[in-house]
What we know:
Number of domains: 2
CATH topology of the largest domain: Farnesyl Diphosphate Synthase
Number of helices: 14
Strand content: under 5%
CATH superfamily of the largest domain: Farnesyl Diphosphate Synthase
Order of helices and strands: HHHHHHHHHHHHHH
CATH architecture of the largest domain: Orthogonal Bundle
Distance between the termini: 39 Å
Largest sheet: none
Radius of gyration: 19 Å
Shape: globular
Number of strands: 0
Amino acid sequence: MLKDAYQSAEEFAKSHYENFPVISITLPKEAKKHIAVVYQFARQADDLADEGIVNPEKRIQNLELYEKRFSDCLCGQFITDFWMALKNTINECNLSTQYFYDLISAFKQDVFTTRYQSYTQLLDYCKRSANPVGRIVVEICGVRSEEAFLHSDSICTALQLTNFYQDVSVDWQKGRIYLPQDEMEKFGVTENLFDEKQNNANFKSLLKFQLERTRELFVDGRKLLPFLPSSLLVQIKMTMLGGEKILDKIEAIDYGVIETRPKLSKVDYLQIFAKGLLTNAR
């Protein structure tokens, strides 16, 4: 049963589009299955929060039920083999269970919170929506260092922010804006701009500022590399390269994310994979 559950988790991970490979061929088999089942946990919860045809109250109920099933699995009660595999991963890798609860907390917040007044508020969301995943992956690979965790946080926050900029048009259709309200005001950007799809000078300046700050997070994230075992090193490099490539693409379309959602091509993936393999220096 466990073997089938892990295989199903790996297939689940491969079937979902991301800006980076969730599980690459460079990972050892054991780490691959554990990362896949953690990804499935996070993605399923995210999907529950993002079910557009379901009213917000029902989405919260679904997330609370998901949280209960997670708590049950920690007590050895499994409604499906997926939960059994997740508990096995938590036990084998000695994972911090609070990170899983943090993820669910962020997804609950996503149901009702559609604006963020400041960058600080946005970072608090990232602290629970993205950073726990990185910390879990680092734990799976046997790293237990607070300094490593902090650099991992920089990578995950940068990836989350990058996804926000990439999905400006998608999120607007869902009634969400992940650009800090105070910074929108500072740069003279109003919400009317999104409806009118105006990629004007003010919006370009705002997004340019966001991208520059996010690139600094990726730079700090590279300090994680010396802490990593070789089995995880290429995976993390490719993850960062994927995020940075999206930032490049946003710049290439002159910050026109209100009308266009940039995404990676097959050629981009091949280049990222090759660069991740060839740049072996930590």
